[in-house]
Amino acid sequence: MSADDQGVSLADDLALRGDDELVGLLTARPDLASPPPAGTGVLASRALSAASSALAGESLDLLSVAVLEQTIELGTAGTGRIPAPTSVTAIVKALSGRAEERDIVDRVRLLHDRALIWGPDDALETGAHAPAALPWRAHHLTGPLAERHADEIRGDIDGLDDRERGLIETLSRGPALGRSRDAAVDADPQQPVPRLIAAGLLARVDDQTVELPPMVGQLLRGEPPLRADDLRAPALHDSSARRRFSAAAIDDAAGGEALELIRHATTVLRTLGATPASVLRSGALGVRELRRLAKVTGLDQRRVAFIAELLAFLRLIDAGFPDPPPPSDTGELAFAPTPGADTWLHQAPERQWIALVEAWLEMPRRAWQVGEPDRDGNAYAALSGELHDAYAPIQRRVILDMLEDAGPAIPVDTDALVASVHWHHPRHIRRYSRRVVDETVREARELGIVAHGALTRVGRAAIGDTDDGGHEATVLSAMRSALPQPVDHFLTQADLTLTVPGPMTPELAEQVELVADLESGGAASVYRVSEESVRRALDAGRSSSELVTMFTTHSRTPVPQSLTYLIEDVARKHGQLRVGVATAFIRCEDPTTLAAVLRSPAAEHLALRALAPTVAVSQADVREVLEQLRAAGFAPAGEDSSGTLVDLRERGSRVTVARQRRQPQARRSVPSPDQLISVVSRMRSHDRAASARPASSAMSAAPVRAAGGGESATALIQLALRVNRRLRVDYVDAHGSASRHVVTPRTLGAGQLIAVDAGTDEEQRFSLHRITSVELLEG
C-alpha cells in the first residue's frame, strides 16, 4: 500500500499549488526543472525519486532533518514502510521541549514547500524515498540518544570495554556504516555489537548493517557533538561577553597580516628566481627543496608551502626550464617565477592582496596538508596533485559565511564555529571536522580575511556577491582602508640602520631597497646600510651626492656623519675600474690600479690581457669579471659602450608559463526566475491538455485526431477555425523538447499555426512541420 492510497498524491498536491509556489519549489530544487517537466505529474515523479530527494537534503539544517525524520517515524508506525499520514500537531508534540513550536512549524512549511512532504496539516504524507534526504541511514534524532545529553553519552563511552570501544573508534575514523552478522535482532546479546545497540551507541539499519550515531563519532574525535536533546541552533558567540577588539582594530590587524604575506611572497619569488627549486618526478615540490626555501627565506615550512600553492595557482611560479640558467643549473625542470611575477611585484599592495585572496577562495587544493602523512605514510608534497580537492572552495565559503552571520567584530572560537557549521550542514559533518575548520580559519587569518576570530571588512567584501559589477572595486576599497597609509620617510639611526614606521611609497621603497638591506619586516621595518649595499646603489647609476640627498630629504632624524663618510668612502673607490659590455673590457684612468689588477689572482682566472696601460680585455662574462674583481678587493663598476654606468644586477631566472591559470569549475547554471515562470507555464499547459476531453466523430465515439505534418492535420485545423473549436496540439520545438498545448486557432498560413493558449490567452506560433499530432476538443 502506498501513500497515494491514503490521501492526496503529490501530483494532485502540486497541481493545486499556485504558480508562485511552483516557482519557489523549482528555485529550491533546480534539478526538477531540467529538462522542463511535462506536467505536474512528471514533476511529482522527479521530486519523489531518491536522487532528487538526496539533493534536496543537502540544504536541510538539523531541525529540518529532525522534523522530516519524525514525520517518517510517525508515518511508519514501526512497520518499516510509510503507509500512514501524520499531522503537524503530532510532529510538534513529538519534538516538544527540544525546539520552539514556531520553528518546528516553519520547518514543516519548508519541507512542504520543497515537496518532501505534502498534504493538509492534519494529513501530511511523505514518499517512499524520503529517507534519502536524511544525512544518515538510521533515525538518530528520534532514536535512543534523542533525549540524552552529551555528558551522559560520554559517560557511557567511558564505561565500554576495550573490544566495544575499539569497534566504535574504528567507525568514528572511517565510514559510519559497518557490516556485522551480529546486527540481527536475534543475535547473541553478549556480543559487542548487540550490547552497543542496546546501549544506543550503535544503531541497527538492517540485519547485517549498523551505523555509528554522529554524536558518538564526534565525541570520539574530540569535536563538539550535535545536541539531539536540544535542536535549537547553537550560538556562535556569547552575546553578554565584552568585545575585546573594535572593528577598526580588527581591520588594522588584517592589513598588517596582508603586508607580511605580500612581503613573504615577494621573498619567495626572488629566492626562486635566484635559485629555482627542482621538480620531483610527480611534478611536485619536494620536502628537501621546501626546507631549503624555508632556510633561505627565514620562513616556516608551512608558510612557504602555503605561499607556493597560492603563487602556483596564480601562475606566478611554474615548472619549466629557467632562463637564464642559474649557476647551479642541472638542465632539468625547475620551479621558478614566470613573467607574470614581474607584473605582480610592481603592482600596488591592494592589487597584490586581492590576487592572493581570490586565489585562495578559488583554489581547489588543501595547502594545509603539506607535510602530513598520506595513507602510505609518505608526506604530502607541496604542489602535489594529491592535494587537489574540488570541494575545498565550497568549504571555505561555508565557513566564512558562518563567521559573517556572527556580525561585525564579533569573535567566534573554533568549537562554536564547528558546532554551528554542523548544525546547519548535518549531511557534511565529516567534511567539516574540527581540523578542517581550524586550518581554514588559520589560512584566512594569514590572508587578512579573519583577524582576532572575526571576519574582517575585507573578508565580508571578498565573499560578497561576485555577480555584482562593482565587486572588485568594493574589495579594493576595503583593502585600501585596511592597509596602513604609505609613508615617505624613515628614521636614520647611528648604527647605520633605517627604521621605516609603515609601508613605504613605491618611490621611496625603490630607493631604500637599492641602498639598504632588510633586517626585519613587519609594521615597522628595519633596513641596514652597508658597504655592499652602497656599492649596489652606485652600480645602479646613483652618485654619492644623490644618495646623501636622498637620506637628508627622507630622514626625520639627523643623518649621522658615519653614514655620510661611508657613502663618500665607497664612492671614492667606486668606478676607478670600468668593465664594458664587449665581453669584456676593463678601463681605468689610473695605470697603477690596472697594473695591480693584472698582478692579482683574478687576472689569471679571467685571462686578462692588457691592450694599453689603462685598458685590458677578457673573454669572461661581464658579470663574472665584476664578481672576480670584487672578490680580489677592487671596486669596479659596469659601463656601456658610451661610458655610462649601467645596472648589471641579476634579475633572476624566469620560466615560460606552460599552462594557463586554472579557471573555477563551471557549476550548473541556476535557472532565472523568467525561465522558471516559463517552465511552470508549460507544465500548466500540459496539464490542461491532458485533462481536456476530445471531441468524438459523428459516426462513432472515437476521438477526432490527426497526425501532424500531413494534409489531415491541416484539414483538422481548418475545421477548428471554421467552427471555432479548441485543439490539443502535440509539438516538438527546435531543441527537441516535446510539449502539449490546448489552444484556440486564429490563423493558418505560411506553414504556421497562430493560436491562443487556453490558459494564458497568450498568442503562440507553431510550425506545422513540428506538430506531431492534432486533436479536436469538445466545446
Number of strands: 25
Question: How is the largest sheet built, in terms of strand order?
Answer: 20-25-21-22-23-24
Overall pLDDT metric: 86
Alpha carbon gyration radius:
37 Å
| SS field, number of helical segments | 30
Strand content: 5-15%
How many angstroms does the end-to-end distance come to?
39 Å
What is the general shape?
elongated
Any low-confidence stretches, pLDDT <50, length ≥5?
Answer: 1-6
Largest sheet: 6 strands, antiparallel
Structural class: alpha+beta
> Portion of residues in helices?
40-55%
What does this structure look like?
- With 779 residues, the protein is of the alpha+beta class.
- It has 30 helices and 25 strands.
- The model is unreliable at 1-6 (pLDDT under 50).
Q: Any descriptors?
A:
single chain; 779 residues; alpha+beta; six-stranded antiparallel sheet; 25 strands; elongated
Task: Describe what is shown at a glance.
The chain is of the alpha+beta class and 779 residues long. It has 30 helices and 25 strands.
